[in-house]
Structures are given as C-alpha cells and as structure tokens.
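Lab channel / #folding
Pinned by the channel admin:
"Please post every new chain as: sequence first, then the structure tokens as a reply. Keep commentary short and put observations after the output so the thread stays searchable."

First post following the new format, from NK:
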Amino acid sequence: MSKSVFLNTTLGKQVVLTGGDNDKSIIGAIASSKGYYETHIMSALPEIIADDFVCLDVGANIGALSLAFAGLAVNGKVFSIEAGRTNFEFLKNNIQINYFNNVTPIYVAVSDYIGTATFNYVEEVAGCSFISTNGIGMGVQETVKVTTIDALIQELGLDRLDFIKMDVEGGEKKALLGAMQTLERFRPVLLIEWNPQTIKRFYDEDPAELFALLSSVWSSIVLLRDNETIVIENYDHLSQITADGKGWEDLLCKP
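Reply from TO:
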C-alpha cells in the first residue's frame, strides 16, 4: 500500500511524494511535520545548487531531495541512484507525477567494486534500508547490481558533475573510494550524511577513516543544522558534536 503527501522543497515550491504507507522515515516524517522534511538541507540548497548544475543523488530513496535538486537545477540534470526495488519504483513514480524531465532514475547500488550485493529493505523505515558487509540482515532481502561512481559517470558520458549528495547508511567511504577519478576530475560539492553508528554496525569500519578521506579531498567541511552551520576543525571536533546531538549529522564539503 502507498501513501501520498505534499512536500515543501525550496523557494516556496511544493511537490507530491508517494511512498509506502508504513514508512515512518520519510512519508511518515513529512506527514507529521505538515509537509516539511530535512529543513536544514532544504534551506541551504538555493545557495549551493545553480540552475545549470549536474547533480548526483546517491541513495535517492523515493526522491524527496532529488526533486528539490531538480527544482533548482532547472537547466541542469539530476541523476538519482537507488538500490532498493520498492524505493526505486516510488522514485520513478514521483519523478513522473511531478513532471520533472531533468531527473534520470538509475537502479543500482554504488561501492568500490562492480558486482552484486544483498540489499535489505525495511518497510517501516524505508529511508534506512541498507547494504551490509558483515552479514547483518533485516526486512526483505534482494540481490542488487553494484557499480562504482567512476564506472557510472563513464557510462553516462558526463562532461561535468557539480554536486553529489550521498546517504547510503554507512557505505559512504566505499562509495567515495569508487569515485576517486570522478572527484579528481570534477571537484564537485558533496553533501554527505555522517552516521558513525551505521558505519560501525553495517561495515565494521572506523568512522575516522571516512573523515580522513573527506579531509583529503575537500578543504572545507561544514556541519548543517537548522539556523546554524558549524565549521568542522578535525575528527575529534566532529565526534564531540555528533555525540552531543542526535547521533548523525549532514556535512557540506567544498573544494
């Protein structure tokens, strides 16, 4: 079963978003907040995304942020990557019902290798569905195709990439390692979820390794919150802020 809600995106724009009626992470969150979602991100986007930007949404889920990107990059393009079959079907539908012709949905997972993986779709928190390398399984499991961002960019034939949003439930380091040629070539702005718990739980990795990678590519790392931005000085600084907050944050990284 599905449920539709109105979502306020950016600059007074509104879209219709359809997802699973049991999902509390996106559809439920939007409904309970009377049409708002990730307001700290939505409010920052007009200063980040120009009207001709080429954007990559890695972990697009049902498209809430993809549609916001598309509403700003009206003369650009948005490529929305989603690995879960159910989420992907909702994503395609949401692009169509809102008449966006500058968004291309892509059904694939991204990592640092090309092959397959087991994707765990959790209906009640569809926005938190995940891939794990240490055997953790939840919800409905499906085998999905995996590629690298470098391979995908080559396949798409892109000659520019201005912005990447990445939220893949702890798999961010692996996704970035599979994108190093792309990052060196285009130097895009990156908006990335920072969630130490998913990094440890699903991948048995040290979050410090992801931060070191971010610091090696982007010279500016800023934490976004409602009505506040915090310049991140180092890993210890970020760890303290995360521990004092909700446990995960969103980082804006610029060259």
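NK: The longest strand covers residues 140-147.
TO: also worth noting, Residues 62 and 89 are 8 Å apart (CA to CA).
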